[in-house]
Design brief:
Length: 244
């Protein structure tokens, strides 16, 4: 009887291990044609030995410049649908993947901060000889935009002159921010790395879709693109650094 139970437990354990292995290694969706073209048409610049991915649309001599700062945990690909309209309004539009996101480098041992991301945006603009901009920011990008705005207001020597700042939905005011349970769990420094490692496309698709309205849900291909860009170059291993 005991031998039979031991075999049953061993079989159950083996099944669980195999199931977890399959779950953890659930293959990511391949890059869609749209995302492939996005990646291929982008450029890279180097910031402190890290490559930052960006797009620069429009006339480089046009002084009416818009820079878009994306949110968490996605990338500049967020803005692809509205880029044509933005280009009709502004003469030049720049979008970039923040360090640790999208197709930018994702160093695993790194102290990710809002201040550094603001430095990266400022450095990019300066390297393109842009000294004044309009900002369109979303989610985490709101906080980075606020840091750039603070530097402008403080009159820092190397500040970027701001013509306008537009902040889309983000958790700026604590009293109006209602994080989901998973977001609260991710704030735990012990649970966060484990939860991020356990997250796969199926879980991401469900949780990410929930933040959209009933009539604005992304398509299956769009969700796959969001996920593919998010985990590019082992992105899930650094996402935990941001939520902490």
């Amino acid at each position: 009887m005991s031998l039979h139970l031991n075999k049953s437990y061993l079989l159950l354990l083996s099944t669980c291990v195999a199931a977890i292995a399959v779950f953890l290694n659930y293959p990511p969706p391949p890059l869609s044609d749209t995302l492939k073209k996005w990646k291929q048409s982008g450029k890279m610049f180097n910031f402190q030995n890290n490559n930052i991915f960006y797009h620069d649309y429009g006339n480089e001599n046009n002084e009416d410049v818009l820079v878009c700062i994306h949110g968490f945990p996605t990338s500049s690909f967020d803005f692809i649908k509205i880029l044509p309209d933005l280009q009709n309004i502004f003469g030049r539009v720049i979008v970039a993947d923040m360090l640790g996101f999208g197709f930018s480098d994702k160093p695993k041992v790194h102290n990710y901060t809002v201040f550094e991301q603001a430095d990266i945006i400022t450095y990019l603009l300066k390297s393109l000889s842009i000294n004044k901009v309009n900002i369109l920011a979303h989610d985490l990008g709101d906080t980075i935009a606020q840091e750039i705005l603070a530097r402008f207001e403080d009159g820092e020597k190397d500040r970027i002159l701001l013509q306008s700042v537009t902040l889309l939905n983000g958790g700026i005011l604590p009293e109006t921010n209602f994080p989901k349970i998973i977001q609260k769990l991710l704030l735990n420094k012990y649970l966060s790395p484990v939860l991020m490692r356990l997250t796969n496309y199926v879980i991401f698709k469900q949780s990410f879709s929930d933040v959209f309205g009933e009539n604005t849900k992304p398509s299956e291909e769009e969700l796959a693109d969001f996920w593919s860009a998010n985990i590019w170059n082992d992105g899930y291993l650094v996402t935990a650094e941001w939520v902490l």
